[in-house]
């Protein structure tokens, strides 16, 4: 087991595609997914291509890549990677797409280009392209599982998730063969920087592929009506992968995040105490930026377990979850993990409302306000949580399009009530 988490280790980046959020997952395909192909001084192709993408000129970027072999001085390595660069361009375009049809069209085009590139069996960027293809298959499955989902969509999503698992399994095997000769070698990074960088790159891709393979199986199981029963084999396969990663590689982001996925699988299998332990261990990880999203998901898992106990531990759920939500940064407040946390916290507040006999009147009133605000806020962001949010809002007599009313209350009796009222007002104004 490694000695601790090091967020700046090479290739230690966090992928949230397993968590089912379409555009966030697509954006993660953008970050760090493509390498840095060399180019000759005669044609600054790579830099120009990046500028075209950054400006949103995706059609122009595709035309430029089509004509790249006509420009002098372009490195052979970049010319051979044209399909890979096209795939990245289509993914960039998908992220900015304004409709589901345009999103899917770009993803299909990207997948086609990746398949074309992978026909090269010995290209040095092959494993990178395989990883990209697997993540793209995950995103397309998440697309099918967003909005209103029927049995046909579930079946198609399951097929895509299983295809992704197969892709990641292939990456794991390919990289294992590349890493085996490096075992036991004492590589001096100062004297052999290229060799050390290659080893670190292979190791990072290997861990990411293993993590994604397990998550693909977990998500495939989640498309079944009874995952614990009908998807038990998939869940157990995923659990073995996550256990191995979380115990052996906890010093890497992939190993740390595997602890979250491990808890989610254990929760799906009905192993409450083990799931609880995994979520707590995830929350005990260092406060590193790459782990923030995973920690939001872990606290959601913890709340879900608290609320299914008998009697429900809604107070503990609120005490653990509310500070996490309050600490969310502005750029995190529209992420899928935050919407799920809002939903789970709203359930905890609704449980407090239902427990009027054992609660103070002021706490019940505050719980009603909190649950309403949380549900309305979560409902403003589309995602797999939307249907459940609408159901809960309807249950308390509120339309999903309702605006958030500013909280009202009697004059506070003491400082604590005044502070609570101020927080209610602040949160309402944020929505």
Average per-residue pLDDT, rounded, comes to: 84
Q: What percent of residues are in strands? A: under 5%
Shape: globular
Counting DSSP H or I runs of 4 or more residues, the number of helices is 19
Would you tell me the structural class of the helices and strands?
mainly alpha
- How many beta-strand elements? 0
Distance between the termini: 43 Å
- Give the low-confidence spans: 1-42, 426-431
The succession of helices and strands, N to C, reads HHHHHHHHHHHHHHHHHHH
Sheet bearing the most strands, described?
A: none
CA gyration radius, whole angstroms: 24 Å
Helical fraction equals 55-70%
Describe the structure.
This protein has 431 residues and is mainly alpha-helical. Helices cover 66% and strands 0% of the residues. It contains 19 helices and no strands. Helix 11 runs antiparallel to helix 12 and helix 14 packs parallel to helix 16. 42% of the residues are buried.
